[in-house]
Each structure stands twice: as structure tokens, then as C-alpha cells.
């Protein structure tokens, strides 16, 4: 749990630096959310991720399923009127959680033999690049 | 060989999936078509996987190494890919090395080589559009795809982010439609042709991927599309998981398959 203001601000800055995006520039218009093809599976809307980062309610972002549902399709970035790339914000959140802990989302042992046989190499390489550090 | 001399010379970067059964069809039909059109596609020596996704975290430099090796090896020659993801990663890495001095210095230090930053990174569709031209392609078509209702599926990697990919209009692309028109097909327009298929969620969130790809396929079906073309092996795999594809209502092909067909080229199953 994030329990102090200092920790919150450190993690928030870390996320902003890693994605090279200024979350405070977001005007909450919701175009990212309207453009997102996988939004029905998210527990927080892309717009809400931005809002929690602005407000410093970081735990909501770190506990959210949303960054793991983002498919990095860049539709949000293409349509953001503030030129923010929200897919990079999602990546920064994933990286923040993955780096200290490694394969918490995907490890070879989690894939069935059937999946390993049927998925194209591109799926496996991109899956491990995104979900395992 | 159709033409007496090679007109256009490129280095060909295959990538992991083009050597697998899931992507081999694209390689075979593309190389055969390229040869016929007078495009030299010499496979790069000792290439390695591009990493399939471009690292979006600013400090994720280690994953830039493998695409950087490809760019360094190509030097001032142009690198051509068939796979959208390979093209995406190589093009963005090239842009990063050209514009981010810190990243370039660190990678150069690691690779012990200085990069001139002049590699041209092209997708095969761009080579056909910009260097062969639609008119010339049309002239080379021996068996026009008359009456075949084909739709273009762009997906994400070729188009976005458009400032970096500089491929086509990201909201209203037309390169694949122009391509299909040159091949004589009945070009179908439908919404969702540049919506995501679910990409790598095929590995971790199969249901989410299936929902996303079914939306694309269903939109195409409503517009009476019988066949969709793609340049991405993962898009193809994801779209093929749709019930409509499994029931044979619609077919997913690599863009190079109707190309080879229209050029009248025989590509044997299992041959190379």
C-alpha cells in the first residue's frame, strides 16, 4: 500500500518520466476511452487512469486491471486532443509493477502445450515482452 | 524472372514468424512476386528477432538492441519487411536512434559501433506503391481478381503513431485499397478496418482478443466482404479465431497471396 505523500509523488514522477507524458495535460474529454477497442474488459476507463494519476490516487491505478488489458493499439494516442500517448502511460504502469517482480503476469509455465503449439511466434514474443520483465 | 535486370535492390528482414508455418505463406508469395516485379529482396545475414513490440517505456533501452543490430548491419541500404510488427519496431527504433542522442550513445557504446542513421525502413506495400507504382503493377497483372470481394484490414502497427510511421492517413488509409484495385478485385469498404484485433492479448486474455477480432470480422461480413487481407501474422491468427472464419463465411489472407495470384504466379504449398 502507498501510505505517504512522498511515496505517492515519487511513484507518480517515475511513471511520468518512464512514459514521457505529462498526465496533468489531460483535460478528461474521454476521447481515449471512446476510441479504445478493449474498453469493455477494463475496470477503470483510460480516462479514469489519467484522472487517478492527476489526483495522486495511485493505488487505484496500481491495482487496476486496465493496464493489463491495453493492447497498445495507439488509437487513444491518435485521437487525443492534447497529444498524449495513453498507451505509453499504461506501459509505464506495467513496467513499474513488472520490473521488481518479474513474470507476475506471464511465465512459460502458465501456457498450455496447446497454446504454445497454436500461437504464432509473434504472439509469444510480444506477450513476453509486454508481460514479463 | 520477368525483367532482365534487377531494378530495385533492398535488404529483406523476415522476422520470427515469417519462417514459421504461420507466416511462411506470406514470405513465399511475397518473394515470388518481388522477383517477378523486378524487386531484389536479399535476405539479411544473421538477422535476429525485432522483439515484436516497440518498447514504450523511455528507459527500456535493452529491448532496442536487437532492432538496432538490424539497422546497424544495413548501414545505408534500405530494409524491407513484410510483417507489420517488424516494420513498426524497425521504423520506430530508427527514428529513436536518429532523434534521441542519449539512447543512441548508449546503444552505440554497447554495440561498439557508430550508426550513421541513414537506413531507410520500408514496408513491402510502400515499395510497391512508391517505387513500382500502381500503374505498373496493374500492367503486370495477368489474372485480375475479377468479382472477388476483398476488404483491407490494416490493424494498428502500419498506421500508428502516424507521425513516426508516416505510412498513410491513420484515419482514412487507402494504400491497401489502391493495391487491391490494381489487382482487379472488387474492393470492399467497411468500418473497423484500422481497429485493433486484440494483438498480444491472444496470450493472456483470449476472450478479450476474441471479442475485438470478432467485431472486425462481423463488420466486414455486414459489408459482404468474402476475404480480408492483412500484413500481420498476429492479426491473421486473431481474426481466424472468429466463428465466421471457422465456418468458412470469410477468409483471411496475407496481402501477398492475392498479389502472387493476380500476377499469375504458381506458389507451391510447402515450397520456398
Describe this structure in words.
Chain A has helices at 5-19, 31-35, 46-55, 58-63, 66-69, 75-79, 86-98, 113-118, 121-131. By secondary structure, chain A is an all-alpha fold. Chain A folds into 2 domains: 4-98, no CATH class; 103-133, no CATH class. Chain B folds into 2 domains: 8-124, Glutathione S-transferase Yfyf (Class Pi), Chain A, domain 2, CATH 1.20.1050.140; 134-262, 3-Layer(aba) Sandwich (Rossmann fold). Helix content of chain B is 44%, strand content 12%. Chain B has 13 helices and 8 strands. Chain B has helices at residues 24-37, 65-74, 84-99, 101-111, 124-132, 134-140, 162-165, 175-182, 201-204, 206-222, 233-240, 243-246, 256-262, and strands at 8-13, 39-43, 78-81, 120-123, 149-152, 186-188, 227-230, 251-254. In chain B, the strands form 2 sheets. In chain B, strands 2-1-3-4 form a 4-stranded parallel beta sheet, sandwiched between helices. In chain B, helix 1 links the parallel strand 1 (8-13) and strand 2 (39-43). Chain B is globular, with a radius of gyration of 18 Å. The model of chain B is unreliable at 1-5 (pLDDT under 50). The chains are: A mainly alpha (133), B alpha/beta (272). The A-B interface holds A 17-20, 37-38, 40-41, 68-69, 71-75, 77-78, 85, 87-88, 91-92, 95, 105-106, 111, 115, 119-127, 129-131 and B 15-17, 20, 22-23, 49, 51-53, 55-60, 63, 83, 85, 156, 160-162, 170-171, 195-196, 198-205, 207-209, 211-212, 215, 232-234, 237.
Compact overview of the structure:
The complex is a heterodimer of chains A (133) and B (272). With 133 residues, chain A is mainly alpha-helical. Chain A is built from 9 helices and no strands.
Amino acid at each position: 500500500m502507498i501510505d505517504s505523500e512522498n511515496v505517492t509523488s515519487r511513484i507518480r514522477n517515475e511513471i511520468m518520466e518512464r512514459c514521457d507524458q505529462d498526465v496533468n495535460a489531460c483535460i478528461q474529454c474521454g476521447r481515449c476511452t471512446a476510441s479504445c477497442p478493449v474498453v469493455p474488459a477494463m475496470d477503470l476507463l483510460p480516462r479514469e487512469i489519467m484522472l487517478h494519476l492527476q489526483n495522486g490516487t495511485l493505488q487505484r491505478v496500481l491495482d487496476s486491471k486496465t493496464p493489463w488489458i491495453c493492447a497498445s493499439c495507439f488509437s487513444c494516442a491518435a485521437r487525443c486532443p492534447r497529444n498524449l500517448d495513453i498507451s505509453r502511460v499504461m506501459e509505464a504502469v506495467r513496467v513499474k509493477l513488472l520490473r521488481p517482480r518479474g513474470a507476475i503476469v506471464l511465465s512459460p509455465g502458465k501456457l498450455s502445450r496447446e497454446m504454445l503449439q497454436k500461437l504464432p511466434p509473434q504472439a509469444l514474443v510480444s506477450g513476453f515482452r509486454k508481460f514479463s520483465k | 524472372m520477368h525483367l532482365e535486370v534487377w531494378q530495385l535492390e533492398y535488404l529483406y528482414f523476415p522476422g520470427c514468424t515469417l519462417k514459421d508455418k504461420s507466416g511462411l505463406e506470406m514470405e513465399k508469395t511475397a518473394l515470388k512476386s518481388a522477383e517477378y516485379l523486378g524487386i531484389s529482396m536479399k535476405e539479411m545475414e544473421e538477422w535476429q528477432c525485432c522483439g515484436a513490440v516497440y518498447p514504450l517505456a523511455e528507459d527500456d533501452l535493452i529491448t532496442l538492441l536487437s532492432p538496432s543490430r538490424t539497422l546497424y548491419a544495413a548501414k545505408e541500404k534500405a530494409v524491407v519487411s513484410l510483417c507489420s510488427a517488424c516494420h513498426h519496431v524497425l521504423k520506430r527504433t530508427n527514428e529513436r536512434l536518429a532523434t534521441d542522442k542519449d539512447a543512441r550513445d548508449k546503444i552505440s557504446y554497447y554495440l561498439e559501433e557508430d550508426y550513421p542513421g541513414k537506413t531507410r525502413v520500408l514496408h513491402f506495400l510502400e515499395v510497391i506503391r512508391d517505387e513500382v507504382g500502381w500503374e505498373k503493377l496493374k500492367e503486370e497483372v495477368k489474372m485480375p481478381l475479377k468479382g472477388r470481394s476483398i476488404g483491407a484490414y490494416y490493424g494498428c502497427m502500419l498506421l500508428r503513431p502516424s507521425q513516426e510511421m508516416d505510412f498513410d492517413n491513420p484515419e482514412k488509409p487507402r494504400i491497401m485499397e489502391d493495391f487491391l484495385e490494381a489487382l482487379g478485385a472488387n474492393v470492399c469498404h467497411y468500418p473497423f478496418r484500422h481497429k485493433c484485433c486484440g494483438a498480444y492479448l491472444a496470450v493472456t486474455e483470449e476472450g478479450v482478443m476474441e471479442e475485438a477480432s470478432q467485431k472486425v470480422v462481423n463488420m466486414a461480413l455486414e459489408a459482404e466482404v468474402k476475404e480480408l487481407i492483412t500484413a500481420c501474422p498476429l492479426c491473421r491468427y486473431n481474426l481466424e479465431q472468429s466463428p465466421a472464419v471457422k465456418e468458412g463465411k470469410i477468409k483471411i489472407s496475407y496481402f501477398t497471396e492475392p498479389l502472387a495470384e493476380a500476377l499469375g504466379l504458381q506458389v507451391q504449398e510447402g515450397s520456398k
